[in-house]
Design a protein that fits this description.
Blueprint (H helix, E strand, L loop, with lengths): L1 H14 L6 H9 L8 H9 L10 H29 L18 H19 L18 H4 L54 H15 L9 H13 L4 H5 L1 H16 L14 H15 L1 H9 L8 H6 L8 H13 L5 H12 L2 H6 L2 H9 L6 H17 L9
Helix pairs in contact: 2-3, 2-14, 4-10, 5-7, 7-10, 8-10, 11-12, 11-15, 15-18
């Protein structure tokens, strides 16, 4: 207890500095950021480069970023839905729902709905192992819930039109990203709350929709909902009410920052590039070969390719492999890794190495089951093993700054 209190005091010392000592903060967060007092949420905002290290700039940064996000909501969510209900204002004669002109506002509105349909489908099933996303937020978007002329995003889509064919990486296809191992036994989707209220999943839907609008080349890809979920949950659960009230805007900018680092994982044409998912999978298997050649050879002989399991592990930062509290703990370490995401490779390697005794005896089907539906266990044991692998790499001249 005394050690934990001293640890909290060290966090407070660093977070109260005029200029945050980022290396020291990374070292602390690598072994887990505390939830108390909103410390984890604040640390993530720093580690994801949303807040500057100069604390005197925080207020102005937050003011500008939150105002900018509010503008996005008005421009991309509020005004287009008014258009759909009230026509095109002064241009209603020239512009109409059947207008073939590519510059038609109506054409853009219907095209947006195609992307929105997939987002809506995915966020209605976000983290069903907890009730959080089904519950109402205390801070709904008043621009939407208080204006009868503004239609909710969840009301703009026709669910009968949703098909499996819409699960794609921008025009190129993607393997199934959802793991049933973490899914609830219920198949019922979440429902919108009554007028005047918003569920947390509806807030996430809005963030993802705006992201897709701002990134038309990539748009939305299935799995991004799993990336944003832990960030939004952490911010919307912040004990600090002033931060909790602005969780939507802060989450948006942190999601933007994180996607800027991993967006190439979601673009198939970049799979074999240095920053693509193919290169990451190759790094993972090379790391396994270095640390456990026998297990690596077992998988090679069984032709159990990394695409069968590690594609999802790496692309979604393990968000589908563990329950949400464990995912958040893993992400403390991932975000603290200054060489993102070297530690992710070590955690994935540890996942295989800690199952080696069983996997060395299993046939192909048995090992596939373990890797696609990873067995539950103590996440700290897994992270300790990953840190051992880091230390072994440091001896070989390879390591991550946060853990060394």
């Amino acid at each position: 207890m005394a050690a934990y209190k001293a640890r909290l005091q060290e966090f407070d010392r660093i977070l109260s500095q005029d200029v945050i000592e980022i290396k020291a903060l990374r070292r602390l967060c690598f072994t887990g950021a505390p939830e108390e007092g909103g410390r984890r949420a604040l640390c993530w905002k720093l580690l994801l480069n949303y807040l500057p290290l100069d604390t005197s700039q925080w207020d102005e940064t937050l003011r500008k970023k939150r105002a900018q996000y509010q503008h996005f909501v008005e421009e991309m969510v509020v005004e287009p839905t008014r258009l759909s209900k009230n026509g095109s204002g002064n241009n209603h004669v020239e512009d109409h729902p059947l207008n073939p002109n590519p510059d038609s506002q109506w054409g853009s509105f219907f095209k947006d709905n195609e992307v929105l349909a997939q987002i809506d489908k995915d966020v209605r099933r976000l983290c069903p192992d907890i009730m959080f996303f089904q519950r109402g937020t205390n801070y709904p978007c008043r621009l939407i819930v208080d204006d009868q002329d503004v239609e909710r995003l969840s009301h703009r889509v026709t669910h009968s039109s949703l098909t499996a064919s819409s699960v794609t990486r921008k025009g190129l296809g993607i393997t199934k990203m959802e793991s049933v191992s973490r899914r609830s036994t219920t198949t019922e989707d979440y429902h919108p709350l009554s007028p005047g209220s918003e569920a947390h999943w509806e807030v996430v839907e809005r963030i993802l929709f705006i992201y897709a609008k701002l990134n038309p080349g990539q748009s939305y890809v299935q799995g991004m909902n799993e990336i944003i979920g832990p960030i939004y949950y952490t911010f919307a659960s912040d004990p600090n009410e002033a931060f909790r009230e602005m969780a939507e805007a802060d989450c948006f900018w942190c999601f933007i920052s994180l996607m800027g680092e991993i967006r190439d994982f979601f673009i198939r044409t970049l799979d074999e590039s240095e920053s693509g998912i193919g290169a990451m999978m190759n790094r993972l298997m090379a790391n396994l070969r270095q640390h456990d050649h026998q297990l690596w050879d077992r998988l090679r002989v069984q032709e159990l390719k990394p695409q069968f399991f590690s594609f999802r592990w790496l692309t979604l930062l393990l968000s589908q492999e563990f329950d949400l509290p464990d995912v958040i703990r893993v992400w403390d370490s991932l975000f603290a890794d200054s060489d993102r995401f070297s530690y992710l490779i070590q955690v994935c390697t540890a996942m295989m190495v800690t199952q080696r005794d069983v996997m060395m005896e299993n046939d192909f089907a048995g090992n596939m089951k373990i890797l696609q539906h990873y067995p539950p266990g103590d996440i700290q044991v897994l992270l300790s093993k990953a840190t051992e692998l880091v230390e072994s790499n440091v001896e070989a001249g390879i390591g991550t700054e946060a853990s060394s």
